[in-house]
Design a protein that fits this description.
The chain is mostly beta strands. Helix content is 3%, strand content 45%. The chain contains 1 helix and 12 strands. A hairpin with a 4-residue loop joins β4 and β5. The chain is globular, with a radius of gyration of 18 Å.
Length: 174
């Protein structure tokens, strides 16, 4: 399986357009033609509609499984020359859970070539049922992105994980 190494402080000022990013790096995999990095954001703040109060989620009691990646994640595909990626922190305070895999070329007996995915970096580490089970593939951050401003954030991705970030601020004047 893929071995993931976090080489710098989880949240580092990398002079991104929003000021903060999480950099994830990993060892190269022999035979990988490209990599896939997938991540999910979990909001740290919970709201109880019955009592109309705000609280913080408990990672021990917050259910998060492999299925959550299928339902609500972002995935980028990176060339084999890139064994790192910077995820922009455009979220309120919370958690980023991520996983990585290599994609290699396979050759069948009929000489037809196709791409075959490797194992996710989270595979083989047991069944994961709550947020704490993902601690080796999770970043927690307590400062959200400009949480006091009214804004709309749009990310558009193109090949090799490149992205365009557009942030529109609203002042409420109509």
């Amino acid at each position: 399986p893929l071995s993931v190494i976090n080489t710098i402080d989880p949240i580092s000022n990398q002079d991104a357009s929003n000021g903060k990013e999480i950099e994830i790096t990993w060892n190269e995999i022999y035979g990988a033609e490209f990599y896939e990095l997938e991540w999910c954001f979990i909001d740290k703040v919970s709201y109880n509609h019955d009592t109309q109060t705000e609280g913080t989620i408990n990672p021990n009691n917050y259910t998060f499984t492999e299925v959550d990646f299928k339902l609500n994640s972002t995935r980028v595909q990176l060339s084999s020359q890139h064994n790192f990626y910077r995820i922009p922190i455009i979220y309120p305070k919370g958690y980023i859970i991520y996983r990585i895999r290599g994609i290699g070329q396979k050759i069948s007996s009929s000489s037809y070539e196709y791409y075959g995915p490797g194992l996710w970096s989270t595979d083989g580490s047991g069944t994961k049922t709550d947020l704490n089970d993902w601690s080796d593939h999770m970043f927690e951050f307590d400062e959200g992105f400009e949480t006091t401003l009214a804004k709309q954030v749009e990310l558009a991705f193109i090949e090799n994980g490149r992205r365009k970030e557009v942030i529109t601020y609203y002042d409420g004047s109509g």
